[in-house]
Prior knowledge:
Elements: H1 3-16, H2 20-39, H3 46-69, H4 73-87, H5 96-110, H6 118-132, H7 138-148
Helix pairs in contact: 1-2, 2-3, 2-4, 3-4, 5-6, 5-7, 6-7
Amino acid sequence: xxxxxxxxxxxxxxxxxxxxxxxxxxxxxxxxxxxxxxxxxxxxxxxxxxxxxxxxxxxxxxxxxxxxxxxxxxxxxxxxxxxxxxxxxxxxxxxxxxxxxxxxxxxxxxxxxxxxxxxxxxxxxxxxxxxxxxxxxxxxxxxxxxxxxx
Length: 150
């Protein structure tokens, strides 16, 4: 079952269960995927669907952070719940040990020595992690790299 099919089935299930948050979140995801279909002049592939969902999750995380800064914890909580629903459609996150291993390999591969080399090392680390499968937040990788490349 593709992600699209799973989203469609889960929208119906959420509607039957009267889960308003899940229905609105999944409809938003469907809408984003449709928008990207139109931009690309045809249906996007499974990787494109995952990328669209990842973008929505990032938006939810950014919004939650802004709501927390604005002293609106109820809105931040809603955004975090939406992100949690969307995360169930993506592959599991790469474990911390694998991220640290990829960071060390990227530093060795690129010969990075200082913060000026962060971009090159970041690209190499993300490429290594993508080959391992799963998803990883670029902020986690950047944080580990910046700690090592002081």
